[in-house]
Amino acid sequence: MASATLYSVSDGLASALLHALGSVLPGPARAAVTNPNVIVGLAVLIFAVILLAASMLNTILLIWWERKLLGRFMDRRGAMHVGFAGLLQNFADGLKLFRKNTFQPQEADPLGFYTGPCAYMVTSLIIFGVLPISSGWNAGTLPLTLLLALAIFSFAPLFIFVSAWSSNNKYSLMGGMRSAAQMIAYEVPILLAVVAVILVAGSFNLTTIVYEQQNYWFWGPLVVALIVFVAGMLAEMERIPFDLPEAEAELVEGWNTEYGGMLFAFFMLADYLRALVGSILVVLLFLGGWTMPTWVPGALTSFPLAGIFWFMVKTYTVFGLFVWVRASLPRVRTDQLLRVGWNRMIPLSLLSIFLAAVLVTVKCLPLLGCVPGVGS
Amino acid sequence: MASPITAKEKPSENPILFVARPMATAARQFAKSLIRPATIVYPYERLEDPTFRDRVAVASGRPIGVGHVWDNYRGVHALNIATCISCNLCAFSCPDLCIEMVTVPGGDPKHPKKCPEIDYGKCSYCGFCSDACPEGCLTMTTRYELSVARRAEMVYSPEKLYDVFRTKLPMNPIRVERPANEDAILLDPPLCIGCNACSRDCPTQCITMLDIPKPAAKPGEKQTKRIWKEPVINDSDCVRCGTCISVCPKECLFWGTRK
Ligand code: SF4
Ligand code: SF4
Fold it and tell me: What range does the domain containing A136 cover?
């Protein structure tokens, strides 16, 4: 698998394309077209397009998955008419939103009003560049991918706040403030929980973290960190039970009240992109990424693209857990939310760091199995 | 002793249970609806389709829509034009004013036959009209598919309602047994001029005009040659529709209790 990375595939595609194009062109044009720099440029473009298409496709599938699961939780069927089992329903919905008029409220600030949703969407998309889906699927093995991903992930409150403020509606502004407060409150425990993983894995590199989990997945020894991380992610994604900024049942969409049509679709998509990123991060940090335990028969883990397959299975299962939580728990109040964030989550995450430190020092915990190769 | 309203102290809940219990409930619900969600996939499955009902009852052990749930459904009305007496009671009782009495063939020119025409754009399916109908000719059926392309098609003429009647859909069998009406139509004799309007318009023909002695002439006036008549109402035939009251030009008929 390591030989055929996503970039090498797109590089090969680009050079084949350009050489085929060059062979039918006259001399000077041929030289210009087959210039290595041009090939690299096209390869990056193809790479980006594949990444974009894959992430969008998965996001839309995720929405479908949520609708179906939620339907069953509520004794109904979810989308079922467009396409097989309603698979195309979200495309139809997207098309409908795309064709709708976009209104700009009176005296809204056009700069913030239009860049807010776009930046929210784009920052959510950029994260996919650094998330390794399998051994060959990432933009580059930077040493600090985890930090980069989390840093980009935490841009969101800023853009939510910008779009809420610039839509010239006091309720949107209030919603934006609540949303930003919530996200910032839960950023801290998330980062602290991630520190526990970093301690045990001894690396900031997501790929390394995954390979560190080849013998055992981190969710067992780091279960406290997992709980904090999942709860924090629920708040970051603004999902029930932490969806107060846009309490669907009570508010008119909270901070994105003034948005309609495609801009609204951007917010919706970006929300699910972030949900996808959250599920992927849980899989990468705690569930062994694309690796499978050794007791799984080899035939199940060695077919082509098995890594991506298992990764997706895990991701959708984790998201299914989020949906399960959404279907069961009531929404919390703002004070409860912040109290849980600052009073419970942060001590818990500190505890998880302590446990991780013990794990690294002792190197061998009974019950959990020994930890080989911890540290460097 | 009135005590001030205070917030009840809830027994403090274990936070783990607070999360775990609803999650378990949701999981149970999920497992149950994996076999068959309760939702009926309407255009493909129909509640009124007995084979579908049987299938669901067999498959899930949960019978749906049988007995009282479905059979007193209030859908489109069925009107038996032949037995309608044009009493107007349905139109009177309709809270949404969606019934208009329109002329249908079959009456005599002086006393045209009028039957209800129902505007389903306004109807709230309360069923008051069919409860009020003294002849039982206006009932509600189980038909519920009413979508039409134009608004005018929502108005069902008596003929159309008669067509519904002829399809022999299951009718709503539950009819309120109306209590014996103590009220009766009473006459204020000195005001009556004997014009015959009430007797002419009574849908049940229960008013007979009887001769009465002429009133004594006022001093200085000549005794009139006219024959004086006065309505006498047969209470057992009267359906209490009130038509006579509304047609009386002198407002001498009124509701009251007969001594
Ligand atoms: S069902 Fe109710 S609303 Fe409809 S026509 Fe009869 S009385 Fe009027
Ligand atoms: S209440 Fe019945 S009998 Fe009277 S007019 Fe209406 S449908 Fe006819």
Answer: 100-368
